[in-house]
Amino acid sequence: MNQHTRPTLDDVARAAGVSTATVSRCLNAPDRVIAPTRERVMQAVNALGYTPDFGGRALASGRTNTIGAVIPTMDNAIFARGMQAFQETLSSVGVTLLVASSGYDFDREAEQIRALAGRGADGLLLIGSARPATTYDFLRRRGIPYVLAWSLGDSADHFVGFDNRRAAEALATRVIALGHRDIAMIAGVTAMNDRAADRVEGVRAALRQAGRDPASLPIIEAPYSFEDGSNAFAALMQRVPRPTAVICGNDILAVGAIGRAKALGLRVPDDVSVTGFDNIDIAAFVEPALTTVHVPHRRMGVAAAQQLLQMIAGDTADARVEFGTEIVERGSLAAAPV
Amino acid sequence: MNQHTRPTLDDVARAAGVSTATVSRCLNAPDRVIAPTRERVMQAVNALGYTPDFGGRALASGRTNTIGAVIPTMDNAIFARGMQAFQETLSSVGVTLLVASSGYDFDREAEQIRALAGRGADGLLLIGSARPATTYDFLRRRGIPYVLAWSLGDSADHFVGFDNRRAAEALATRVIALGHRDIAMIAGVTAMNDRAADRVEGVRAALRQAGRDPASLPIIEAPYSFEDGSNAFAALMQRVPRPTAVICGNDILAVGAIGRAKALGLRVPDDVSVTGFDNIDIAAFVEPALTTVHVPHRRMGVAAAQQLLQMIAGDTADARVEFGTEIVERGSLAAAPV
């Protein structure tokens, strides 16, 4: 079944009655070929099932017009909106996006980066800055352009992101201003995730700023799922005194927490306030709606694509594109109960 | 910056002090190399940033150990859980998954299939059966193994899926049995989506079975987003008589509908029942929780991976793997108001 009787450029040229150079042009610079010829060639390409060979095409144009992205998860819509915008921007200039999902696993990410580089990706989008030095060594030795998104690091790499720490600090400062003294946190797993770690640091900074001991903050780290958020919330509600506000490392955890609060007979926000992070679609659709941090996912996706395309084209690109975030106040956060 | 001074197999062999054959074995059949040698070679591979060339590797092993998937969307968790299981199964046998997302666009899907085939994917996972004949022609001419998932078609292709029509018919039959006469539907966009079309057919079949006119079913087609579900629900509530049950083509639309019901001051399920489809995580976390159709996403993902791996290995694989679905009754569906 898997015969791989691969049609050649010659086959296409013969079927379309044009030169192989014209076929190449149709594939690599279609706007330089008049429409009727281009259509005839593309019909032959389709009819024969011709695909430009990676090696040959890369030699001819220096590019494969494919960009790779390795994201931590395809689940839970965290990266979905930003990746959608990233893809649309690439698609509008004829570049195909291939995505791999590492499951927050450094070894798997390294393997996927290697696979994308091996398949000839012109450039890579990676999320955040936490990864082993060996992975960065590989990227630099291969000379493959890459952009780090969803965070801002202090290395010389290209970043398109926002300040996770400062955003979390602003939100926690707001929670403190509402009179909450017993605050707890459900964080993402910080070990492999600089965004999750920075958000914890931000909450601690706000406590310090308010003259409280940051070390006293109860924190449960949980993978990003409704169920994990729900279970972590139940554990925090066992504490004495019971927290009156639970700051969650993302919206998924917060939705899980709100669900559990209801199951426990606790009113949100009268008995306990809950906050999220990301402002994904679901944040507005839970009851009560989530107070959260709005992250400009779409704008980040577009900017990351533009930056990467510039780097691949050999143009100079800004090394850092920083986006602001803002607190979206909805029903899940209120003043501390008196 | 993008110098592409690509290290060769020779470079790795020299750095590790082994033969090129040993390097090849480490990359293609690592279990056939003793651990200390393998580690030395992999250190050299990492240090040099070596990636096996697609062409060379494909020639040596006949495989690239990469599988491609083209899914309609990465958004909204519809395919997330199944794809996660698909990826884990591939990962456990050392195969890397690259995913492209077509945005329910046939032309883009065709282009992504071509890109994945051109990058040397050993096999492809595609969702559903609705796509132009030219795409199927391309797949067959290339002889690339592919599996169609999330639905069951009547072609000779390999399917791993479930009967969308029968599942929707069972759910609608349950809604009718609860005394609802004014039933409406918010469906996915059926034009490019055989799953959405089959679900509409299933609801119509249930009406026919109950002696009602299937043509009288008010249907609004909407893209799969909370907001589209919310807007479609508002439009349906304008009808006279007002529907007492709204069957939604998936859980995302249903969550949007429930949110809008609250905004309109309608109680779910006392004033209006709402049902979903898919049983994604959020279904259990909205208020009231969703009555929906449980789809075995994870088991489908695993089965699709196993089937595709068998086909790539040249083993015979079942042409159809069919999964059952079941109705999950939660708070959003109740008897029609009297």
From TrEMBL, chains A, B:
It holds the Pfam family LacI. The keyword Hydrolase does not apply. GO terms for molecular function: DNA binding. The keyword Repressor does not apply. It comes from the Bacteria. Keywords: DNA-binding, Transcription, Transcription regulation. InterPro entries: HTH_LacI, LacI/GalR-like_sensor, Lambda_DNA-bd_dom_sf, Peripla_BP_I. Residues 7-61 form the HTH lacI-type domain. This is LacI family DNA-binding transcriptional regulator.
